[in-house]
Amino acid sequence: MRFLVRDRLLGIGDDYWIEDDQGNKVFLVDGKAMRLRDTFELKDVRGRVLIDIRKKMFALRDTMVIERDGEALAAIRRKRLSLLRNHYRVTLADGTELDVSGKILDREFAVEYDGELLAVISRRWRHIRETYGVDVVRDDADPALLIAVAVCVIHLAEKEREG
C-alpha cells in the first residue's frame, strides 16, 4: 500500500490530505490549533476520527502519544543513548517496540519491527515537489498507525531542530 503526503506539513492548525497512489483521498490530518499542546487527528474521508495524536504534557523527553477510541495505542520518543539523532522508538500498548531510523528531516526513513521492514518513508520516487511517500510493506500492517508514526516522528524531529 502506498500513500502520498504533501509536505506543507506539521504546522499546528494545518490540515492536509494523504492520498493513495491513484490520487484518491484516504486520510485527513487535522491539526488542532488553539490547543495547549500539539494535537492532530487522523480522519477518514467521511470525517471519522481514526487516530488521535498529541504531545505528552509532562515528560522528561518530548513524547508523542497515539490513541484510538480513547485507548493508548503507542508512545513515540527519540531513542535514548542513540548516537544517531534520527532514531526513534515506538512503544505499542502491548509492549511491542518498533524502531524508526533514517534521515527524518529529509523524509528518508524506515519503520521496523524486530528487524523486519514495515514501512518506508521516502521522497525518492515522487515527482511532485514537497511530497513524500509512505510505502506500507506488509499487508497485515495497520496503515493508519504507520502514517501516524511518520507524522509523529517528523513532528518531533522538526521541534528538536527548532529548539
TrEMBL record:
Entry's transmembrane regions: none
Family annotation (Pfam families): LOR
Family: Belongs to the LOR family.
Name listed for the protein in its UniProt record: LURP-one-related family protein
Species per Swiss-Prot/TrEMBL record: Streptomyces hirsutus
Organism ancestry: Bacteria, Bacillati, Actinomycetota, Actinomycetes, Kitasatosporales
